[in-house]
Automatic annotation (TrEMBL):
GO terms for biological process: coenzyme A biosynthetic process; pantothenate catabolic process. The chain holds residues 189 to 414 of 415 of the full protein. The gene is coaBC. One of its GO terms (molecular function) is metal ion binding. It catalyses: N-[(R)-4-phosphopantothenoyl]-L-cysteine + H(+) = (R)-4'-phosphopantetheine + CO2; (R)-4'-phosphopantothenate + L-cysteine + CTP = N-[(R)-4-phosphopantothenoyl]-L-cysteine + CMP + diphosphate + H(+). Catalyzes two steps in the biosynthesis of coenzyme A. In the first step cysteine is conjugated to 4'-phosphopantothenate to form 4-phosphopantothenoylcysteine, in the latter compound is decarboxylated to form 4'-phosphopantotheine. This is Coenzyme A biosynthesis bifunctional protein CoaBC. Its EC number is 4.1.1.36, 6.3.2.5. Transmembrane segments: none annotated.
């Protein structure tokens, strides 16, 4: 096909962890490095899409040719994603914290003498679900990820239905897989038009990104009869 099949399209990608503040110096986070999400943003941009990457804190270099918005918390990530609309393609690869501390202490918390400290949490907004339900702003193709540690495909299918996205990319994040933080990934692509999930061979996250971007380009080309 053409070298830049996504020219004229707009894409939004989320990447990295979120940081949920506990006090001015502490936060809740997770092991996401941003490697997978950043690679996807770069791959979509190389295929010609005008791409916005909304990323939590990572050490990754901003991908060339991509507009990058740096955020910390899930709520900031949601706001930055909503600001990026309308887009044709959304890919949510970020490991967004499902919960945040109910109260952020205004000053650094003191160790004190208590034998135990409780942390109260409340649910964060779900960015993938929000984009999937964005009404007339809904992207033509919404792709989620599913990070699972057991019954990977089954749980990912349920997640796709529950969150309302079109495709979901399932990956096993069990200890020892290196999926969080590593350079390689083994993924299963679950689409809306296929009953059988595709299991891709283990490959670099860069190769996962390139393959996914090609698939997205094929899909949008067909859908619009281009
Ligand atoms: O960053 P790396 O080190 O390269 O690792 C890559 C990865 C493992 C983080 C990535 O491949 C991946 O699986 N990303 C999704 C991680 C995740 O949080 O999955 P989940 O199954 O908890 O969430 C399902 C989907 O909902 C995801 O698309 C997630 O971005 C989205 N979500 C979840 C919660 C929330 N509050 N908002 C969301 O948008």
């Amino acid at each position: 096909g053409q070298a830049r099949p996504l020219a004229g399209r707009r894409a939004l990608v989320t990447s990295g962890p979120t940081h949920e503040p506990i006090d001015p110096v502490r936060y809740l986070a997770n092991r996401s490095s941003g490697k997978q999400g950043h690679a996807i943003a770069g791959a979509l941009a190389r295929l010609g899409a005008a791409t916005t990457l909304v990323t939590g804190p990572t050490v990754q270099v901003d991908p060339p040719g991509v507009r990058v918005q740096h955020v910390e918390s899930a709520r900031d990530m949601l706001a930055a994603c909503q600001d990026a609309l309308p887009v044709d393609i959304a890919v949510c690869a970020a490991a967004v914290a499902d919960w945040r501390p109910s109260d952020c202490a205004p000053q650094k918390m003191k160790r004190g003498d208590a034998a135990e400290l409780g942390l109260r949490l409340q649910p964060n907004p779900d960015i993938l679900a929000a984009l999937s339900a964005a009404g007339n702003q809904r992207p033509a193709l919404v792709v989620g990820f599913a990070a699972e540690t057991e019954r990977v495909v089954e749980h990912a299918r349920e997640k796709r239905a529950r969150k309302g996205c079109d495709w979901i990319v399932a990956n096993d994040v069990s200890v020892g897989t290196g999926t969080f933080g590593g350079d390689d990934n083994t993924v299963h692509l679950i689409t809306d038009d296929a009953t059988t999930p595709e299991t891709w061979p283990r490959m670099t996250k860069q190769a996962v990104a390139d393959t996914l971007a090609e698939r997205i380009a094929e899909r949008l080309g067909t859908a619009k009869g281009a």
